[in-house]
Amino acid sequence: MIPGQRFSSCSLEGVMVDSKLDTNVIADKLDGYTGSDITNVCRDAAMMSMRRKISGRTPSEIKKIKKEDVDLPVTMKDFEDALARCKKSVSLNDVSRYKAWMDEFGSC
Predict the structure, then answer these.
(1) Domain coordinates of the chain in residue numbers?
(2) Which residues form the Spastin/Vps4 C-terminal domain (predicted)?
(3) How far apart are CA 53 and CA 95, in angstroms?
(4) Taking Cα atoms as reference points, which of 3, 53, 1 lies closest to residue 23?
(5) Which residue from 89, 1, 83 is spatially nearest to 42, judged by alpha carbons?
(6) Predicted TM-score of the model (pTM)
(7) Cβ(68)–Cβ(36) under 8 Å?
(8) Could you report the per-residue pLDDT of 40-74, keeping only the tens digit for each?
């Protein structure tokens, strides 16, 4: 995450989360991610159970899947998979340049 930013579970509002999910561990893994990046990771993680259920199935087979079969709690594995797919949109170099600009010119 960007320095000074803290992971918030509001990115997971309305999403079932596994009781064993440690958001502090996830927050540590999101170092350097922007708010938008974090939202993308959370959305991707929330979709992982559905992706696993529909993988390799035909459209007619997918239509037969019950909602409760794909509406599962988000797990640490889901976040690990999402982090592998969703990369940071801002490099450390960009953050350094932004900090230097802010130091020199301040905010608007």
Answers:
(1) 9-105
(2) 70-106
(3) 38
(4) 1
(5) 83
(6) 0.75
(7) no
(8) 999 999 999 899 999 999 999 999 999 888 888 99
> Which one-letter amino acid corresponds to residue 74?
V
Question: What's the rounded Cα separation, in Å, for the pair 56 and 48?
Answer: 14
Distance CA 87, CA 96 (A): 18
Q: Which two tokens stand for residue 15?
A: 């999403």
- 3-state SS assignment for residue 17: strand
> Is domain 9-105 in CATH 1.10.8.60, yes or no?
yes
Amino acid at 53: K
Q: Which long-range contacts (CB under 8 A, 24 or more apart) does 76-81 make?
A: 76/18, 76/20, 76/21, 76/22, 76/25, 76/26, 77/48, 78/45, 78/46, 78/48, 78/49, 79/21, 79/26, 79/29, 79/41, 79/45, 81/44, 81/45, 81/48
CA distance 93 to 23: 27
